[in-house]
Specification:
This protein is mainly alpha-helical. The chain has a domain of 58 residues. Helices cover 62% and strands 0% of the residues. Keywords: Membrane, Transmembrane, Transmembrane helix. This is Anti-sigma factor. It comes from Algoriphagus marincola.
């Protein structure tokens, strides 16, 4: 600490802070003619209302479809695991059988597209 040079004391000029707000305000230009912004806001408001009213109303999905989409989101985000879903099911074996049938159908369709039979593998 002793090796650091001592700096002179800093002082603001007399009356500097009293006149500072007036100096700042005199340097800023005030443009109070914002009528074009008001008309632009009115135009945007009516244009958005018109677009909303003219667009066809999309029907909301059925509750079952919405539930399936929510479940898929939980699975895709890895929030739920396969064990969680099986634990929530009333009959896990039935759920596994349905999944197996669905996977087998997809697999058989793939084999048909590739002109293969399950025996040719």
């Amino acid at each position: 600490m002793e090796k650091l040079p001592k700096l002179p004391e800093f002082k603001a000029p007399d009356g500097y802070f009293e006149g500072l707000p007036d100096q700042i305000l005199s340097k800023t230009k005030t443009n109070s003619n914002y009528s074009y912004l008001k008309w632009a806001a009115v135009f945007v408001f009516f244009a958005s209302i018109s677009i909303y009213l003219l667009l066809p109303n999309s029907e909301s999905p059925s509750p079952a479809v919405a539930l399936d989409e929510n479940i898929n989101l939980y699975i895709d985000s890895e929030y739920w695991t396969a064990e969680d879903i099986l634990a929530m099911s009333e009959d896990p074996n039935e759920l596994l059988d349905e999944l197996f049938e669905e996977e087998m159908t997809i697999f058989e369709e793939f084999l048909e597209e590739e002109n293969l039979s399950p025996q040719q593998q």
